[in-house]
Design a protein that fits this description.
It contains five helices and no strands. About 75% of the residues lie in helices and about 0% in strands. Keywords: DNA-binding, Transcription, Transcription regulation.
Length: about 70
Amino acid sequence: MSPQNLNINSQNECNKSASEMLSDFILSEAKRLLLYSDKNIFEIAYSLFFKDNSHFTKYFKRLTGYTPSNYKKQ
């Protein structure tokens, strides 16, 4: 399936783009790992295929308004 067809199908079925669906999944998995695992932020970033911890932190903060460490403390 081409990226364009995937995007059209996801828009039709879920009213979200494919990238929005992926972002939602990554964010929910990051939140789950932060709250319910003993992994540190570096390990979580690596397990979600981020190249470095700072990129993961910026991504998470952009979507939630919190840094991963602040989210974990709440």
